[in-house]
Design a protein that fits this description.
2 strands; 185 residues; disordered C terminus; globular; mainly alpha
Length: 185
């Protein structure tokens, strides 16, 4: 077998990690893999936003919780990622952490938010679709698009979590195939 090489930019790496994590999430994939990929992508986007002076999700959190330090905020954002990525300080392989489906949904949102802030019009379509989907499915994040999205994708707002994922997968597939919000591209 001959060696195969790829030249991969930071943006491409983050975009690919996030796209795979979104697809895995919507297809009910492995929670640990989803979280790890989403966090890896989020860190790339977040650090590049910071260096470019672009507002990132961290800035939204800092504005909401002005008494929290940067370290406190990042400790919260990265606690599960760090548990999954690093050995336990006392070497305990039996240490456990609880990871929920909603944790992954929101971690993907933070990565997708920073991706959109950093890349603007170059944001991958799957990330754009995920951002619209999560805004329609999360009551705390809902905006003006909710009614139209529910009309075009019945059950998106009012369905169970599993129904919302199935509709989200259909929405992402529509977006990737050139159909967006039910219209032919």
């Amino acid at each position: 077998m001959t060696g195969h090489k790829q030249t991969i930019s930071k943006a491409d790496a983050a975009n690919r990690q996030l796209a795979v994590a979104i697809r895995m999430y919507l297809n009910g994939g492995d929670m640990v893999a989803i979280h790890t990929l989403a966090c890896a992508a989020r860190e790339i986007y977040e650090k590049h936003c910071q260096k470019a002076g672009i507002k990132r999700f961290y800035d939204e959190i800092a504005a909401t919780y002005p008494d929290s330090t940067q370290n406190q905020i990042f400790d919260i954002l990265n606690s599960t990622r760090n548990f999954l990525k690093h050995p336990d300080s006392d070497g305990n392989l039996d240490a456990v952490i609880e990871l929920s489906d909603r944790d992954n949904k929101l971690t993907l949102f933070v990565a997708a938010y920073d991706c959109a802030c950093l890349l603007g019009e170059q944001t991958p379509v799957i990330v754009q679709a995920y951002n619209v989907w999560i805004l329609a499915t999360e009551p705390d994040l809902q905006g003006a698009c909710t009614t139209e999205m529910e009309t075009r994708y019945p059950g998106l707002v009012s369905g169970s979590a599993e129904e919302q994922k199935a509709i989200g997968l259909r929405f992402v597939e529509d977006a990737l195939s050139g159909k967006f919000l039910g219209n032919e591209a």
